[in-house]
Write a structure and sequence with these properties.
Shape: globular
CATH superfamily of the largest domain: Dipeptide-binding Protein, Domain 3
Structural class: alpha+beta
Oligomer: single chain
CATH class of the largest domain: Alpha Beta
Number of strands: 19
Strand content: 15-25%
Number of domains: 3
Helix content: 25-40%
CATH topology of the largest domain: Dipeptide-binding Protein, domain 3
């Protein structure tokens, strides 16, 4: 062999070794919010689903990136003519990450646990119509409903209805064991969560061998991490003012889509003076939605006048009923005996839409005499004080659950709206399958809460993401709060 051949062979070997060493089979993705724990079936925090939905945990049905509901752990189902029974046929050879078999007994355990009287499931009400869960055989399970519920397949796709096992339930908050294409590997609290490919996955295997979720709460730090390529992507990018810079950089792609997130000025309807509809209406007219969208979200967001996503076919534009009109707001406050205004609290969780939007809203409310004391809280505090404790006047939050107007039929929900007629309407809607009738009832529901000014309806949160240019398979839209990595890969 000549000297030149030896050099060429050595160079080729080094090149192959380098290519193998730097093969793109892993991913680091940035998120602004860290989950409080890792059990999606016992908390309202969407940050849990953001990491685990579809990746680690799966349900009988699941959402796709376009919002459609497709088979999950159930490969098919039969629905009785009266709509009262759903028989699910499970995929075969499904195992949990600990090697135990997933079968109908686990489905019964999971759904019975979700709807139990002492359940802490944040969406327990969605499963209240399930009268019984019966194991027919290991691969077949039957749900019997107390009344027809046209949303049942949709409800079962939520992260709150994923299938868990009794063998691993005690440690689920720190060591989640699911059936998904990835399995939990490690959680360094305050920093990152790492997932690894599940080599025994029952379905189409993941392309990536590992994925690390890096938690970066500060928008400036998020921008720096993406620019330095310390992360490969950032889902829910918290600094929309920087997106034009990424769009102009060939290293990156910007993903702009829609979410299910109705961003609202949540109002404690049982706390005086918000128990007076005139005061709630005054709030609505004191808010300049577009100023909030421009100032907090740099133009990304769609104004809403009710709790319903604009991309839903049943959406009705009701923004005109709560148009910015500070003089009208002042008149309503005077009519309610509050001509000199009043003081309240404004609890702001970490997301940029809340912290930035809250500053703008507080200034707008001050112009009509409402003095809102800003209280910045972390998510754990928000869940404890606002969501569970109901100890607040106002707060800003984006409700990212899909088509969740039904929460207004729950008087014990944190904003404490109690309207018997609305509750009856939701009961009828759940029992109706005719598409035209359902659309009419959904629009009636939107009008009811808009006219009651239950909350200040701000905007539909845009899905904003940044990723390296050669990353493919990320969702642009967010039909549920999730970072589904099951089909993500690097372009060759």
């Amino acid at each position: 062999m000549t000297f030149r051949s030896i050099i060429f062979a050595a160079s080729s070997t080094l090149a192959l070794m380098a290519g193998a060493a730097f093969a793109k089979d892993s991913l680091t993705i940035g998120l602004q919010l860290e989950p409080p724990h890792l059990d999606p079936t016992s908390a309202a925090a969407g940050a849990i689903d953001q990491v685990l939905y579809s990746n680690v945990f799966e349900g009988l049905t699941r959402f796709m990136g376009d919002g459609s509901v497709v088979p999950g752990l159930a490969k098919s189902w039969d629905i009785s003519e009266d709509g009262l029974s759903y028989t699910f046929h499970l995929n075969s050879d499904v195992t949990f990450h600990d090697g135990t078999t997933m079968d109908a007994d686990d489905v019964k355990f999971s759904l019975d646990r979700a709807r139990a009287e002492d359940s802490t499931n944040a969406q327990k009400a969605l499963y209240a119509d399930i009268a019984s869960v019966e194991v027919i055989d290991p691969a077949t399970v039957k749900l019997t409903l107390s009344k027809p519920n046209g949303n049942m397949l949709f409800n079962l796709a939520w992260g709150d209805a994923v299938i868990v096992a009794p063998e691993s339930i005690d440690d689920i908050k720190t060591t989640p064991v699911g059936t998904g294409a990835f399995k939990f590997a490690n959680w360094v609290q305050g920093d990152r969560i790492t997932l690894e490919k599940n080599p025994d996955y029952w379905g189409t295997p993941a392309v990536l061998n590992s994925a690390t979720f890096k938690f970066i709460s500060d928008p400036t730090a998020a921008f720096a991490a993406v620019m330095a390529e310390d992360v490969d992507a950032f889902s829910g990018f918290p600094a929309p003012e920087n997106l034009p810079q990424f769009e102009a950089d060939p290293r990156f792609q910007v993903l702009v889509g829609s979410t299910e997130g109705e961003t609202i000025l949540s109002t404690n309807n049982k706390q005086a003076p918000f128990d007076d509809v005139r005061v709630r209406e005054a709030l609505a007219h004191a808010i300049d939605r577009q100023a909030i969208i421009d100032g907090a979200m740099f133009g990304y967001g769609t104004p809403i006048g009710t709790h319903f996503a604009p991309h839903n076919p049943a959406y009705k534009d009701l923004t005109g009923g709560s148009a910015y009109d500070p003089e009208r707001a002042k008149a309503l406050l005077a009519e309610a005996g509050l001509a000199d205004g009043f003081e309240t609290t404004l609890h702001l969780p970490p997301p940029s839409y809340a912290r930035r939007g809250g500053e703008i809203i507080a200034a707008q409310l001050a112009q009509v005499g409402i003095k809102a004391e800003i209280i910045n809280v972390e998510w754990a505090q928000w869940l404890e004080t606002v969501f569970r404790g109901k100890d607040f006047g106002l707060t800003i939050v984006s409700h990212t659950e899909p088509m969740d107007i039904g929460i207004y039929a729950r008087p014990d929900y944190y904003f404490q709206y109690d309207n018997a007629a609305f509750q009856e309407l939701m009961t009828k809607l759940n029992g109706t399958t005719d598409p035209d009738m359902r659309m009419a009832m959904m629009q009636q529901a939107q009008e009811t809460i808009a006219k009651d000014y239950v909350n200040g309806y701000l905007f539909q949160l845009a899905s904003l993401g940044v990723a390296k240019a050669d990353l493919q398979g990320l969702w642009a839209n967010a039909p549920t709060q999730a970072t589904d990595l099951t089909a993500v890969s690097w372009a060759e």
